[in-house]
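As a warm-up, study this chain.
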Amino acid sequence: MGYKVAVVGATGNVGREMLNVLAERNFPVSDLYALASRRSVGTDVSFGDKIVKCRDLETFDFKGIDFCLMSAGSDISKEWSPRIGAQGTIVIDNSSAWRYDQDVPLIVPEVNGDAIRGFTKKNIIANPNCSTAQLVITLKPLHDVAKIKRVVVSTYQSVSGAGKDAMDELWHQTKGKYVPGQEMEPKKFPKQIAFNCIPHIDVFMEDGYTKEEWKMLVETKKILDPKIKLTATCVRVPVFVGHSESVTIEFENPISPEEAREILRAAPGVEVIDKREPGGYMTPVEAAGEFSTFVSRIREDSTVENGLAMWIVSDNLLKGAALNAVQIAETLIHQRLVPKAA
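Now compare it with the structure written out below.
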């Protein structure tokens, strides 16, 4: 017994992770279909101990498919998600195409799982931006206790968030014969990424913020609380996998670092690694491949009343994308919002 599941974009970084997560979490799959563009038809991808050949999205019949995990970019999703949803398949989309649509729930199951019921309007559920997912899963339990007023976040985002070409560019620039002071030619990024930091992710907007920074603001409000004020600076760093965030939070009510640690230790999907000693914190290298979101360096921010500062690290391909998508499907099953597995 199980569900018929299609993964669109199965040859990409996130698509492959979706297949891995489905297998690792023993998601009840009866039939698995790996879909991609025509040029990838016949490409082998792994699903547990099985090898699956990719099929052509353009010619695939979605009739009878229960879940479609979509990770093929906004343009593909805008075209295909409504068509797939109209056939009765529930689309869980990892792109930004549907996050801001009022008729599409934007879901992090540990944070706003109850809001998932709104999916029936279009049969589409949106995954948040990877940097937003790890932030809100940390903010939620603290907000429930002390009520958040304002968040200031600086992100340190790995190149995997920009796709395989971005990872290849970092690799080629890093292994090349680098000479200090000599810039290496960028292709995927606007400037050299190896041995560098780039304070620019996505396009610039009229107010000077980038769209990545805007996404964090809008998505946090939609998922958690529209009253929260948030400002972000998003930076691409020469890390292959794993996003990090330096976060300061201003609360309405008093909350101590000790209280915050205990609250977060009990929170679903969160692990606290916070020893005030060298190495007593998490880094993206250690978080890669892990399902949890890790919180370290929890301390008082004495510049505001009721303020805390902390460091948050997560695998952006997992909780920021593939894992969250699979958890959404699991939530639909647990809440009995889909028929029992055939």
